[in-house]
Amino acid sequence: MNALSEVTKQKIRSQFANYPNKQALTLPALHLVQDEQRCVSRAAVAEIAELLELSPAQVQDTLSFYGFFKDEKNPLGNRRIWVCRSLACMLRGGDELLTDVCERLHVAPGETTADGEATIELAECLGACDGAPCILIDDELRLNVTVDEVVAIAENRS
Amino acid sequence: MNETFEPVLLRRVGKPNPQLLSGYIADGGYQGLRKALALEPLKVIETVLNSGLRGRGGAGFNTGAKWMFLPKNVVGPIYLCINGDESEPGTFNNRILIEEDPHQVLEGIVISGFATGSSTAYFYLRYEYGRCYRVLKAAIDEMYDNNLLGKNILGSGYSLDIHLHRGACAYICGEETGLIESLEGKRAWPRIKPPFPAVEGAFKRPTVVNNVETMACVTHILDRGPEWFKTIGVAKNPDDPRDSGSYGPKLYCISGHVNKPGLVELPLGITARELIDKHAGGVWKGRQAKAVVPGGISMGFLSASELDTPLDFAGPGRAGCLGLGTAAVIVIDDQTSMVDVLYNTCRFFAHESCGQCTPCREGTAWSAKILHRIREGRGSLQDLDTLTDISKTMGTMPGTTICGLADGAAWPIKNALAKFRDEFEEYIKSGRRTAVREFAGTH
Known about the structure:
Largest sheet of chain A: 4 strands, mixed
Strand content of chain A: 5-15%
Order of helices and strands of chain A: HHHHEHHEEEH
CATH architecture of the largest domain in chain A: 3-Layer(aba) Sandwich
Shape of chain A: elongated
Number of helices of chain A: 7
CATH topology of the largest domain in chain B: Rossmann fold
Radius of gyration of chain A: 17 Å
Shape of chain B: globular
Number of domains of chain A: 2
Structural class of chain A: alpha+beta
CATH superfamily of the largest domain in chain B: NADH-ubiquinone oxidoreductase 51kDa subunit
Distance between the termini of chain A: 39 Å
Structural class of chain B: alpha/beta
Oligomer: heterodimer
Number of helices of chain B: 17
Distance between the termini of chain B: 47 Å
Number of strands of chain B: 11
Strand order of the largest sheet of chain A: 2-1-3-4
Number of domains of chain B: 3
CATH class of the largest domain in chain B: Alpha Beta
Largest interface: A-B, 54 and 65 residues
């Protein structure tokens, strides 16, 4: 089994001392793996479970609750772009932004563009209502965006 | 009073490199911590109790009282969890506080850790706040390098570690026991209380969960004293035994249909009207407000005739809203359909219900479906009664759910149908349609 690199495993182990038990490393481990591999495969789930002394079902249970982690059949593109659709953005064009971005890129929310460049997601409130409509690019917020700007980011032109 | 109000929490925003420790100390930072460390922990708790500080995360519970709930003479660890899962629609004050002045928050955490006897703090931060994460990480590193964290802080004998813990995009992790479950590596299903976290929280240990803005307030209360804090805001109403006052400065988030959306710091108690007109440049495009969310969408709606409601802990409740919540004000103009607005809020809660309690899981999902049907021109007047019925039967208040998410989902429905019923009836009778192409609510 080597779904997880030794470096990743070491990064997980290095945090053991921060928590009273290993299960608390579930989310940090899932984040590390997805950042590295753009998904969390079944094999990775099993290896995380082994490392944290859990059943793979426990890790899978937590993983599936959040809707944040992708499996190997549907890995993330090079960039993950979340378009906010909650009220403050909706009042300033968030719904239209999401619809237009998806149409321009020929994807539905949760899907990745054919060239593998970008995954488009719908988001509930991103916490940047002062710059509505807003998006999240991986984990960086971008405020007051237009359709053209989002498409350019998705196509790696900006 | 507002004209002379000097910002407290936002006083350093806009300075060059406000995130650096050197700048923070040059501006008088870490004086509150020094004063706290010279006291007995119980004295620090009493100081916060005497300030009247109420938690800024939404529930408005007295912070000092929350700390007092910890059992006495605990053997073994007590945990402090910082709730940075800010996800209530309309709310972004924690983000700006952290991004602009992280040490102000971190100082409050060390003070609170000392007061509560915690030697480990977990800072639970929503994943979306990547910049906050990096700013905090750098600030925490600087603290370790300067004996403000780690062993024997400033020679006091008190030791504290702060660990950053990132969430994964789930609103329910802002509920304190949902946060604890998530921290423990499980699905974020809120717990039945009691036991309250103070008795049995994270890792089955006594735990305090506090909001980010609350921590920033603690910093200033220790530095400037509880009496100073009480000079700001609205005093306790002696005629209302349930009111414990609304003291201190508050960060108001303003978004939606205003000319100048943004974050404003004012004494608790400013009216919605003054906030919109004086501090947000008024309603955009020369329009009027039709409705205003007073404190995040789970608090419901003020109507245009209720804009003189003071946004303190008691005000929104008097106008039929759930409460002050996060003081996130969202302005909705008179050209906007309340059917669309309510659909948006119901869709949010349907998406964010954790699924544990049936009344919430089904109630939020069906209210969103019914409003979608209305927006497709297929609604009936009976749907409005069904929505009202759902809103009255899900939540901790009717006693059908474990946590308050469903109360927050129900409140916008209750307020919308009580205050804007004519608009809903007219919409249905006219056969109007405003539904746009809809995506499945998964991600």
